[in-house]
Amino acid sequence: MKYSFAYGETYKSFEINKINFLGELKANDFKNVIDENDLIESALNNPINSDSLQQIINKKKAENVVIVVNDITRPTPYKKLLPPMLKKIENAGISKNNIKLIIATGIHRPHTKEDNINVFGEEICTNYNIINHNPDKYLKDLGYLSNGMKLVINRHVAEADILITTGIVTLHYFAGFSGGRKSILPGVAGRDLIKENHKMMSDKRACLGNYNDNPVNDIMIEAARKVGVDYILNIVTAQNNNIIHCTSGDLYEAWINAVKFCEHRNVVEISEPADIVIAGCGGYPKDINMYQAQKALDSAVLAVKNGGSIILVAECREGLGETTFANWIENAISTEDIKKRFFTNFELGGHKAFAISRILEKANVYIISNLEDNVTKKLNFISANSVNEALSLALQKHGINSKIYLIPEAPQIAVKHV
C-alpha cells in the first residue's frame, strides 16, 4: 500500500503492508451548498437562546458597543463577517463613532495599520475605532474567579454597554475548542491571568477536542460570563477559509452549536489504539517549524497505545520556531527538566515544550524533517531520513504485525475512543 504525505511544498512517499493497516483518520468531507453571506444573515436573524442584536441594544438603552475580534494569527474572514453585523448595530441606533473593535491579541504582538487593512479591509479601518488589546495596560480588576485567579480584563471590554465577541471555532489542543469564551480569556485578559490560565493545561483533561470536563474551558466560560458577554457571532470554516457554518446568540449555547458542528466534522472515532501512528501536518505552512508541527502530535498521541510510536512527517524549514519555545528545548537537560520549569518558572511559549514532554510520556517520536540532528536529540525525538526508515525502526520495536494508523493532516482532527 503506497501513500504520500505533504512535506513542506513537496511530498514524502512510503509503503505499508496491508496486514499492518488499521485505518486512515481524516476529517469528514463537507460540501457547503449555502452562500456564505446567506449563512451569516441567517445566523444574525436567528440567534440561539438570545434576543436579536436590536432587541438587546434597545432593552439596555445602550449608547456604545464593543466588538472583540481575533488578531491576524487567527484567519477569520472579517471582511465577510463584520459588515452585516455592523449594519444591524447601526440600524439599532448606535453610531459608527460609538462602536469599538478590540483586537484580542492576548500576549501576541499588536496589529500594525497594514495588519488591520489586511484583516478588516480599508472601509472598516476608516470608519471604526480599532484598538489593540494590551495585556499590561488599560485593564480593569473585576474580582476573583472561583479558582482564585484575579479576573483582570481590558477596560474597554469591561465597561462596554453592549459586549459582542466574534471568532472561529476549531480544535484547540488544551481548551478543547476555540471560539466563544476564548475571546475574553485569554483574548482580552491581563498577562498574569493569561499565564495562570495556560498553566492549567497540565491537567490531563485539558486536551484536544475535550470540553465536557475540561478545567481550562470551565474557567474560560466563567470569566466570560462574569465579564458579561451579551452576544456572540462564531463561524466554522473549511480549509480554504470559506465559511461553512455560522451561529449567533448566547455566549454558551451559540458556541456549543458551532462546537457540535466542528465535532461532527473533525472528531474521528476509533475502537482501538494503534502500535504506530504516522502523522503529517498538511505541508507548508503548517509544518513551517516545530512550534506549529507540534499540533500534529496532539492529535496523533490520542490514537497511539501507551508505549507506542509516532512517526511525524514535518519539514520544519524554519527550525524550532518561536523564541521562548526554542530556548526551552535547547536549554533543557531532559523532559523532566521541562516539566519542572513549567511549574516553577512558567513562560508563554514554554507551554508548547511542556506539551511535547507530556506526549513523550506516552509514546516515542520518530521525525522526518530538516531539523539538525542535535536539535532532534534536544527534542528527544529519533531522526530518520525517510518514512520507510522510521517505519522499519518502529516495526522492529513493536513487532512485524504491529497495527498502524495514518493521519495525513493530523492538526485537522481529534481522536475519540468508543
Automatic annotation (TrEMBL):
Pfam families: Lar_N, LarA_C. Residues 272-410 form the Lactate racemase C-terminal domain. One of its GO terms (molecular function) is lactate racemase activity. Residues 7-206 form the LarA-like N-terminal domain. PANTHER family: LAR_N DOMAIN-CONTAINING PROTEIN, LARA-LIKE N-TERMINAL DOMAIN-CONTAINING PROTEIN. This is Transcriptional regulator. It comes from Candidatus Syntrophocurvum alkaliphilum.
